[in-house]
Specification:
Blueprint (H helix, E strand, L loop, with lengths): L1 H23 L10 E4 L28 H11 L5 E3 L23 E6 L6 H8 L5 E5 L5 H7 L5 H18 L4 E7 L8 H10 L3 E5 L9 H4 L9 E4 L2 E4 L9 H4 L2 E2 L4 E3 L12 E2 L5 H5 L2 H13 L19
Parallel strand pairs: 1-2, 1-9, 2-3, 3-4, 4-5, 5-6
Antiparallel strand pairs: 7-8, 9-10, 10-11
Helix pairs in contact: 3-5
């Protein structure tokens, strides 16, 4: 009963905080986040060229989240949360204790995104009965040649088999787990979108097209699809820039912080390399970090000049003329 009152009341407070901050250009916080992203690991088995983890551009230490740290976070935030994403950088199913995490949040909608290389029959049945709300599987091509252009070191047939395993497990267990296939659209794979839709229907999954983030902007021409509505960037004066006016506001700063595997709190999911650490949960409570002077100053920076902050340069918030 308490959760039925606390969660919606907190969501109203968070929304009000965002609205007041946006209108006054002064940070105001009342309430806690309604969603968090928890990075189980930043290790990955693939070498995707425009991914901070896979490309080797990540400078922060690699590791796996301690389940004790996760329990601490859940203990403090569970009264307020509607959603938890158990992924950020890296492949979450590489965590040695991966299946211990979803079961801790059965009263909160929990999502995992995977590259699909660990969806064995056994793991799929565990997922189907884990209490997980949604599983997102990356499928960025419909044959090995096209798939591996971006998903380097990936095995297309293994991913396809894994998707079939998870569908069979969902049906076998009569599970409520939702299956979503994510298709990162680029110049190499856009011609296979119709085939991807047909496969999604076959396995009773939702197919979601996603615009591609480019880290090395000089390589944008290699990846940008021909359909302008599926491009995150536009070419201006010979350079590719984000298709956004980058308004001085950001809902993520009030709704959805990120917690890295080692307990650092980040403002949002675009801070891949942890350039803006708001605090450390190994030494502080989440509430003290959320209301800290450091967080206040970062929100103030966003409200006065978001276009000057490097992590905002790839942000999807405020995009114009883009279809996701």
């Amino acid at each position: 009963m308490r959760g039925r009152i606390v969660r919606p009341a907190n969501a109203i407070k968070s929304g009000y905080s965002f609205l007041v901050s946006s209108l006054t250009a002064k940070p105001f916080i009342s309430g806690m986040p309604v969603s968090i992203t928890a990075e189980l690991t930043n290790n990955c088995n693939l070498r995707c060229p425009e991914c901070t983890s896979g490309s080797g551009l990540m400078t922060r230490e690699r590791g796996f989240m301690d389940i004790g740290l996760y329990k601490k976070v859940i203990s403090e935030l569970s009264p307020y949360l509607y959603y938890i994403s158990l992924y950020f950088q890296g492949e979450p199913m590489m965590h040695p204790q991966f299946f211990s995490f979803p079961g801790l949040t059965r009263n909160i909608k929990t999502v995992v995104s995977t590259n699909g290389h660990f969806l064995t029959v056994e793991n799929s049945e565990k997922l189907a009965s884990s209490g997980l709300t949604k599983l997102i599987v990356s499928l960025d091509g419909m044959n090995q040649k096209i798939y591996s252009v971006y998903r380097q070191n990936g095995d297309f047939e293994e991913v396809i088999a894994g998707i079939r395993h998870i569908r069979a497990a969902i049906d076998k267990c009569n599970s409520s787990l939702k299956l979503e296939l994510q298709y990162l659209v680029n110049k190499q794979n856009e011609s296979q979108i119709p085939e991807a839709y047909r496969f999604a229907r076959e396995v009773k999954a939702v197919l979601r097209l996603k615009t591609m983030q480019i880290i090395s902007i000089q390589d944008a021409e290699k990846w940008m699809p021909s359909d302008r509505k599926l491009r995150r960037y536009e070419k201006t004066s010979g350079k590719y820039i984000i298709k956004s006016s980058l308004p001085d506001r950001c809902l993520r700063l009030y709704y959805n912080p990120v917690i890295t595997w080692d307990g650092k709190v980040l403002p949002c999911c675009f801070d891949k390399n942890a350039d803006f650490v708001m605090g450390d949960l190994n030494r502080e409570s989440f509430r003290s970090i959320w209301n800290s002077p450091r967080y206040y100053e970062f929100r103030k920076m966003i409200l006065s000049g978001r276009n000057k902050i490097n992590i905002c340069m790839n942000c999807t918030s405020g995009l114009r003329g883009v279809r996701f």
